[in-house]
Amino acid sequence: MTATQTVAEALELSPVESHLHPAGSFNLEDHAVPSGLEEIWRFTPLKRLRGLHQDTPLDGEDFKVEVDAAEGVTAVSVPAADSARGVSGYVPVDRVSARAWEAARSVFEVTIPANAEIAEPTTIRLHGEGLEKAAAGHLLVRAGQFSKAVVVVDYDGSATWAENIEVVLEDGAQLTFVTIQDWNDDSVHVVTQHARVGRDAELRHIAVSLGGDVVRASTSADYLGTGGSVEMLGVYFADAGQHIEHRLFVDHTAPRTKSNVEYKGALQGKDAHTVWIGNVLIRKEAQGILTYESNDNLVLTDGATADSVPNLEIETGDIEGAGHASTTGRFDDEHLFYLQSRGIAEEEARRLVVHGFFNDIIRRIGVPALQERLVASIEEELAEHVGRIG
């Protein structure tokens, strides 16, 4: 497989036409400036992207990167021309991604060697220090055969940031890959992530979105061999005026592969807006696969809006199972009544309901420090608004 081939091309899969996943191209001219009428852009507030989708220069340098690499893990910045980017088979599918690919002067490469079991997480922290100039980044994470590791990417500060992330798991690798978007409330972040999963490899992808004015994260995965597994877990919390958008696409390109996508979000405050678009494509070559996707949203106050659209595209009936679910609702009055009837004050009862809502995903993250931080962050969000919830 060459750097310019998609997995579908490398495996000689039949082409699929769908408005949910348009054809990719490295040529920026093939990506028109979106108008907002396109299916992949219709939920995104384009006017708030500060020109990332148009032609604003991506040459800003007002950010710092700190790396805490676990022993045995290599983490280096490589000039784009000398890098291995493209090894995941990803080709930009929208204008922001194509612009970021073109503008990135270097690629930050994280490599986990084959057969290594790395106990400590490798953490990359990106701190934005200004909004005046937009910037572009590119991250490539490669997990060698039969390796096991955790990689965390942590964003904070203020930035206008466009980015591509590639994640590659060779055969038998196990990787937990975490992104934490804890930006200041003035930041704009548009990121496209793509994972290539080898034979019998296991990817656990975790997305945590808490901060930012506009955050749009598009995440996709496909498979190079049988037995691969992808689990995508997400937690997000939107406050007044925030727009948080997650777009997920799992492309089952090989037989007997598995995927599970599960995201949960809460919203509070006027004009808080979350978007979740899930899509699973089961190609005719992908016999015997098992997949499920779900999204649950808890609306805590009036004036908040959650859009949730699950999709399944099935080209073969020879599968083990496929399904999807989506819910959006307010507090469960029965839960509140149960807690209050046992002497728990109303505000504390509401906190407990929210924590219980998120707990199922948080406890499955598998990174204790991250789990504790997420619980604390949710508590901070609730502390500012709990009196108005209901």
From TrEMBL:
- Chain segments annotated as coiled-coil in the UniProt record: none
Q: Name one GO biological process term.
A: iron-sulfur cluster assembly
Stretch forming the signal peptide: none
Q: Give residue ranges for domain SUF system FeS cluster assembly SufBD core.
A: 133-357
Q: Which domain of life is it from?
A: Bacteria
Read off the InterPro entries from this record. Fe-S_cluster_assembly_SufBD, SUF_FeS_clus_asmbl_SufBD_core, SUF_FeS_clus_asmbl_SufBD_sf, SUF_FeS_clus_asmbl_SufD
The record's listing under Pfam families reads: SUFBD_core (PF01458)
Family of the protein in this entry: Belongs to the iron-sulfur cluster assembly SufBD family.
Stated name of the protein: Fe-S cluster assembly protein SufD
Native source organism of the sequence: Aeromicrobium ginsengisoli
